[in-house]
């Protein structure tokens, strides 16, 4: 089953990105096909070099785990608006477009929005 997870919230301050990535990990463990599309402030969750306190979740590491078996797409317009360049994001996460999101939506068996 192919799942598309769309996340809009920032990496810290709310737990929507955290929980969306946790769900992506759980689905990947079940051998599902997962695409995560980060848009709005969520694109910052894929930024490299994050330093969080010991014992606190780190969205950079969580995004890396998804890219190892699934796909992570980042809204390019959202990246530009936040000054986030391709060189500053987790290896394996890809700059993307609304057209790619539309295609992923059409191909998915289910779409979840956080």
Automatic annotation (TrEMBL):
Pfam families: DsrE
Xref: InterPro entries: DsrEFH-like, Sulphur_relay_DsrE/F-like
Protein name: DsrE family protein
Lineage: Bacteria, Pseudomonadati, Pseudomonadota, Gammaproteobacteria, Oceanospirillales
């Amino acid at each position: 089953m192919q799942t598309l997870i769309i996340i809009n919230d920032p990496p810290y301050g709310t737990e929507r990105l955290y929980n969306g990535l946790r769900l992506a990990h759980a689905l990947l463990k079940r051998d599902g096909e997962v695409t995560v599309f980060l848009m709005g402030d969520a694109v910052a969750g894929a930024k490299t070099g994050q330093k969080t306190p010991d014992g606190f979740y780190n969205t950079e590491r969580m995004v890396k785990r998804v890219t190892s078996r699934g796909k992570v797409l980042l809204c390019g317009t959202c990246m530009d608006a936040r000054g986030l360049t391709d060189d500053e994001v987790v290896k394996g996460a890809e700059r993307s477009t609304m057209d790619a999101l539309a295609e992923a939506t059409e191909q998915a068996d289910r779409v979840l929005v956080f």
